[in-house]
Design goal:
Number of strands of chain B: 10
Strand content of chain B: 25-35%
Number of domains of chain A: 2
Oligomer: heterotrimer
Strand order of the largest sheet of chain B: 6-7-8-3-9-10
Helix content of chain B: 25-40%
Order of helices and strands of chain A: HHHHHHHHHHHH
Structural class of chain B: alpha/beta
Largest sheet of chain B: 6 strands, mixed
Structural class of chain A: mainly alpha
Shape of chain A: flat
Chains: A mainly alpha, B alpha/beta, C mainly alpha
CATH architecture of chain B: 3-Layer(aba) Sandwich
Distance between the termini of chain B: 37 Å
Radius of gyration of chain B: 18 Å
Helix content of chain A: over 70%
Shape of chain B: globular
Largest sheet of chain A: none
CATH class of the largest domain in chain A: Mainly Alpha
CATH superfamily of chain B: P-loop containing nucleotide triphosphate hydrolases
Number of domains of chain B: 1
Order of helices and strands of chain B: EEEHEEEHHHHEHEHEEH
Largest interface: A-C, 72 and 67 residues
Radius of gyration of chain A: 25 Å
Strand content of chain A: under 5%
Number of helices of chain B: 8
Distance between the termini of chain A: 9 Å
CATH architecture of the largest domain in chain A: Orthogonal Bundle
CATH topology of chain B: Rossmann fold
Number of strands of chain A: 0
Chain lengths: 281, 253, 263
């Protein structure tokens, strides 16, 4: 990166001396050495806190967490093993996410293309926007109970927003000159929408879908924390209720990894679907 | 008697900004372009020349006056006029082939025929081999050549170019000017070329129409360039004409 | 398309938004009044309003007056939020410029980053209990991530020419950091303010839904336990309103502080 080149000139000036001391110092300034030191240091401190009981019984040892994860993979908790709990959460995410995209994207497109529809829908949408999806949970449980429906409902409430907003903006922000191009080439209104509006808005719509997926993951967790009988949220709440921090942390690790894998996969998908999108560093 | 291809009669244009502000961009412009003539409209920035071109293209409607193409009034944009944009305005999601093929595709030409047609024009502008490249992989000069091919592929009667080389560096610009003449001589069309660069105007034009340097834009004078092609920027006659235009329009070098 | 911008908006289109909102509330009211949705499941707008007025002074049935709930939530959220800013922004800025800072902090940060903020709730409650400190910790953990990221990127995007220019004047690393990198990163840093606020507020509500004895999230949960849908809706609306209000407040502060610096 350019900023590193600018920084580098300073270091070049310093390197006229020789000697082990300077060499060591230079090593310590190497990024990867520091990363390794940091990770090792972190694990050591964690281990120390756990063994020396600095936080009482509240901190499990690193290996305990790994061990717990292994156990959960095989031993069922409340009727399911860890992979099945993960699958329960993911199922809800996928259903809610899919529905959000199928409703949200066309809605956003309609709002952008039709002034009357925009005037009707946008005010109500803006009214609901500041309410966090999780605040709907009580109503959802009241209406649908603790089953799948209430979770999917919360997910849709949360995940639909980025779909609508990004589709709407994606169309609004299409370069108007692209329309000039197609009109000069003799295109009619239908061709304008099909050949220009959709492809030009697509990257923004796809970005909205990406955000939507990660929102969906957060929503399902939140919903499961409040009331569930299975799922990753259920596992960490169970860990809390049973006072088993290894279970909580283990669950959090799986949750974080899943979030990471989800966003990675969609990122890869984008490269395949939009090969023309340049990387912005 | 050479046919008059484009005629502008009493064109003026007033834009309404923010509801109440009137911006008078063009005032009573009249000009005529003969068939297969290359006419350059020369003017500094903010002289209304892009607006004039857009009116001829049909993307804007004049406040007064009208534009006649082959004697028929222009009422909107259409494939009989090809427009090459200053900012290239290629479709980033299409390859070079995809961009050039667009016009024929809109008119439902069968796939094989339109790809052959596009390939011909891609070769004409010198981009053979790049059919499957995306715009972001191309240099500025190459992008503009795609723009030219795209306009040509639609078989327009008239080519309109709006400061097409404004975003290119000097070297590329000279090269593109040469290419423009080469392409035009291979596929003759009536051309209206807008620029702010005197050298470019003299190099390219059969005739140069200069606009006043301030709004509202008015026709200042017309110059006929009788130099044989290919022209040399350093030729005595070239420089003489350049001097003349510069003095008379007080345009900055 | 440019032509479209200049057409006058028809008067019908202008009143459509108001019509829409009005019909929304009317429809809501009718939905319950006409028993299409039973009142047990959904309260009418008028019922919510009545409860609102009642709870301004009435502690029952959930144990506190409205203002106490709002204040508790605000306290917890703002405290965690400000702490997140106070730690996250300097950390991110330092990480952007000093290799040592980045090298040491990054692995830990990258481990924390993918964790959705709500996932911290059980751990925080386990460590700190239901009170203020637990909530503040959760908010802090959720708000710190966007602060670090934006500050880091803000410094990274400093114009290298400015840095090289400073070098020719003999400026030290620290001086360049203070005089060039930090001001240059400010727009990005301010971008983080709104993101972190939204994250903080949402996570707080989630935390209060799960374990609290006062606060707006608690109000929403109580509404369900007492089978009072008007309380639930009241809680939801207040959450939305308060979040919206702080958002506007932060925006004003942002504008004041950035006045003069072009975005």
């Amino acid at each position: 990166m350019a900023i590193e080149v600018a920084k580098g000139t300073q270091q070049d000036l310093e390197e006229n001396h020789s000697g082990i001391g300077v060499f060591l110092l230079h090593c310590l300034k190497n990024r990867f050495v520091l990363y390794t030191l940091s990770i090792i240091g972190f694990l050591l401190i964690w281990y120390a806190i756990a063994v020396l009981r600095i936080l009482g019984n509240f901190m499990p040892r690193p290996l305990e967490v790994v061990n717990q994860l292994g156990i959960m993979m095989v031993d069922p908790l409340a009727g399911r093993t860890l992979p099945l709990h993960l699958w329960a959460s993911l199922q809800r995410v996928f259903i809610g996410f899919l529905l959000s995209v199928l409703i949200g994207v066309p809605l956003g497109l309609l709002m952008a293309l039709s002034r009357p529809i925009n005037s009707i829908v946008k005010p109500v949408f803006d009214l609901f926007k500041p309410m966090p999806p999780i605040s709907w949970i009580s109503l959802a449980i009241l209406w649908f109970g603790i089953g799948e429906t209430s979770k999917v409902f919360i997910i849709i409430i949360g995940a639909i927003v980025p779909c609508v907003i990004n589709s709407f903006n994606g169309i609004r922000l299409v370069d108007p000159e692209l329309y000039d191009v197609i009109r000069m080439l003799g295109g009619n209104r239908r061709q304008e929408i099909w050949e220009v509006t959709f492809p030009a808005a697509f990257p923004a719509i796809f970005a909205g879908i990406q955000i939507s997926l990660s929102v969906a993951w957060t929503c399902v967790l939140a919903a499961e924390l409040v009331g569930a009988r299975e799922g990753m949220g259920f596992i960490i709440i169970l860990g809390m209720n049973l006072s088993r921090p290894a279970m909580i942390i283990g669950g959090m690790v799986v949750i974080a990894l899943t979030a990471w894998v989800l966003s990675l996969s969609v990122g890869q998908l984008e490269k395949w679907v939009c090969p023309w999108k340049r990387e912005i560093h | 008697m050479t046919k008059r291809k484009i005629v502008c009669e009493g064109i003026s244009k007033i834009f309404m900004q923010k509801g109440t502000q009137r911006v008078h961009v063009l005032d009573t412009i009249g000009l005529a372009v003969d068939e297969n003539e290359l006419v350059v409209i020369l003017g500094p920035g903010q002289s209304g020349k892009t607006t004039l071109l857009r009116i001829i293209a049909g993307l804007e409607t004049p406040s007064t006056g009208r534009v006649l193409l082959d004697g028929k009034e222009v009422t909107g944009p259409g494939p009989d006029r090809g427009l090459v944009f200053q900012r290239y305005t290629l479709f980033p999601w299409e390859t070079v082939m995809g961009n050039v093929v667009l016009g024929p595709k809109l008119r439902n030409m069968p796939k094989k025929a339109r790809r052959e047609l596009a390939a011909y024009y891609i070769n004409l502008v010198g981009l053979e081999g790049f059919e499957n490249a995306y715009p972001h992989q191309l240099s500025g000069g190459m992008k503009q050549r795609v723009g030219i091919a795209r306009a040509y592929a639609n078989n327009p009667q008239v080519m309109l170019l709006d400061e097409p080389f404004g975003q290119l560096d000097a070297q590329t610009r000279y090269y593109m000017e040469k290419e423009t003449i080469r392409i035009w001589e291979t596929e003759k069309r009536t051309v209206l070329f807008v620029t702010n660069n005197i050298d470019e105007a003299i190099y390219l034009g059969d005739r140069i129409i200069t606009l006043e340097g301030k709004l509202p834009g008015r026709v200042k004078s017309t110059y006929t360039v009788n130099l044989p092609r290919p022209r040399e920027h350093t030729d005595a006659a070239f420089l003489e004409l350049r001097q003349k235009i510069t003095e008379e329009t007080q345009l900055l070098l | 398309m440019a032509e479209v911008l200049r057409k006058n908006v028809s008067p019908f289109l202008k009143i459509l938004p108001y019509l829409s909102i009005a019909s929304f509330f009317v429809g809501w009211q009718l939905l319950v009044d006409l028993d299409i949705v039973p009142n047990v499941l959904l309260a009418t707008p008028t019922q919510v309003l009545r409860l609102f007025i009642d709870k301004l002074t009435n502690e029952n049935p959930d144990g506190a007056v409205l203002l106490v709930h709002v204040w508790t939530s605000l306290q917890e959220a703002l405290l965690g939020y400000i702490l997140a800013l106070a730690v996250g922004i300097p950390l991110g800025l330092l990480m952007g410029w000093f290799v040592v800072a980045e090298g040491l902090a990054r692995p830990l940060f990258e481990m924390i980053r993918p964790i959705p903020p709500v996932a911290w709730i059980p751990l925080a409650i386990f460590w700190f209990g239901i009170g203020l400190s637990g909530k503040v910790f959760i908010i802090w953990a959720s708000g710190i991530v966007p602060c670090v990221i934006n500050s880091f990127v803000g410094v990274r995007m400093t114009n290298p020419t400015l840095i090289q220019m400073a070098r020719t004047y003999g400026a030290s690393d620290w001086q360049i950091f203070r005089q060039i990198c930090i001001p240059s990163a400010l727009p990005m840093v301010f971008g983080a303010l709104q993101i972190a606020l939204a994250a903080s507020w949402t996570t707080l509500v989630a935390a209060e839904l799960i374990a609290a004895d006062t606060g707006l999230g608690f109000l929403i949960t109580m509404g369900r336990r007492l089978l009072m849908p008007d309380m639930i809706v009241l809680g939801m609306l207040l959450v939305g309103l308060t979040g919206f209000a702080i958002g506007i407040l932060i925006d004003r502060v942002e504008r004041r502080l950035l006045a003069g610096i072009r975005r």
